[in-house]
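Now for a concrete sample entry.
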Amino acid sequence: MTRFTQLLALAVSTVAAAGFAVVLLSAADAPPFGPADKAYYADEATVNFVRPGLVFTITKAEISADGTVNVWLKITDPRGVGLDRLGVDTPGPVSATFLLGYIPGPDRPYVSYITRTRTGAAGTVTQATGENTGTWTKVGDGEYRYTFATKVPAGYNRSATHTVAVYGSRNLTEFDLGTNYDDAVYHWVPDGSPVKVVRDIVRTQSCNKCHSDLGFHGGARKSMEVCNLCHTPQTPARNEGVTTSMQVMIHKIHYGANLPSVRAGGKYVVGGHDYSQVVFPAPAMACKACHEDQKVSGATQSDFWMTKPNREACGACHDNVNFQTGANHAGIPQTSDNLCSTCHQPRGELDFDISIAGAHTVPIESSLLSGIRAKINAVADVAPGRSPTVDFTLTDRKGNPVDIRTLTSLRIYMAGPTSDIPSYVRETALAAQGPAGTGRYFWTFAAKLPADASGTWQFGIEGYRTTTVLEGTLKQRTIRDYIPNVIFYASTGGPVQPRRTVVTTENCTKCHYVLEFHGGNRNEAQMCTFCHNPNLTAGNPAQSWNYSTMIHEIHSAEGGYPGILSNCSQCHAGNSQNLPLREGLLPTRNPQAPINPTPPATNACLSCHNTPEAWSHAKANITALGESCSVCHGANSTYSVSRVHAR
């Protein structure tokens, strides 16, 4: 038992003797923490004493005749055991701020009862805000009543949906458990009728596909419901004077660099932050990336982006439209939202029409494309010194054979061994032959496998057909109808060993919606491994374009990643970020790196942790025998990758 553990055990017994709550947790009754949480790695004595985590639960709210608002709140750990908000009876003081607002009518955003004035470059403005200056009354173990300092005005609408929210934090930094955050909301109708009018367009889980774990303004605002209560139409930024209304601000931030106003040379600045360089990782027209279907997200108003068009939401992205004059709106002035849906119906008869869904059709998803699908049936002659023959089939999305002569491009790749790919071969295969009308073709590589080839080799297909849709109309456009990449593995002898899976396409498309790199030719994560291998360098001066180097550097660039950089598992599959790495990996050629070639683990980690200190540390732990990274950073080590990235 360490000295710290002894002292902690003594503290536990002392606290218990004083009558304070101590809940002992066994390994079988552990709190719900995972490898991404610091608490997951805490010893049992610390967890028993501190009971880390923070959960707010609002159980009731009411408005008195004089406008006084009371809310009943539980403050607990993740197992539901009460916490002392002052941090006296239980470790870690809890701070809390409350929001209060109402929905003035169907399809309308919130109006906040709590406001403040702020003076800045735009003058003095009134903003929605929260409060923490009310009165607390303890009513039980971890149970409190909070009485708002703000009163609801006389004559308020008792039949409107009202919402109270709380957000806050619990400071456990002295126990090396960081700061815990949570928020909660409660909806009710003061006249006692059931809640029918809601604001439920985008759910938090949809945001967290990219953002990992929402935590804005310091970390405590963790849900869209809480964001909606402050980011109301009544709230302008004090310095720029622009609105911070949710439906305007969010659209503009995410569209950033593609806003017509920005492309014309302007900037989008709000709250002191310049979002003019933000590039949305999904296609700009992919509203569904955030506005996920109700069956996926659970949001009851998930289709509002199609069914409830309005000038504020649409004009946020299309910010070169002047609704008052009709400029860039087909010359049609629009003085209200009443007739928006007359022209812009949810769905029209054709893709790319002026219906909401039509105008936001992602080109590769257009129903006007027949689509192309490829399948590798087999690969023959995968042997040293031989030229492999790829047997593949081309069909449309309905399964009908596709004539290879109708394609614009078709290329077949070969690389190996899959233990780690040093180089690749790519050949144009438009001249492949096969039985007429079957869609089945055969391509024999001109290149041969090396005389010493061994292990498993991977083969892949990419290609597309340039297709013109709505030809002869004003909506005519040309689309690259690309083939979803396919990968096939074949062995030179012995069992087939596919290349290790580090990331998956499914993880990439959580943010990117669809992968369309290099003109859509590379649209599956594993396809990227052919070219972006440890020996690939490019640029002037030359630098590494190895997969792990490139992806880590791109995503860790300042302002380039919307999620939490320490959350490796958001991209990595199967804990592939953990050490030790698979044996047989090649070092990375990188003329710009302090260590060139760079050993595999060093290259992967220092692509993010790119500092002189980190490189010096790595160099000191690399010998002629190899890297010793996993001694300290292995999966079960004190400074494991998961542990040092935990929050």
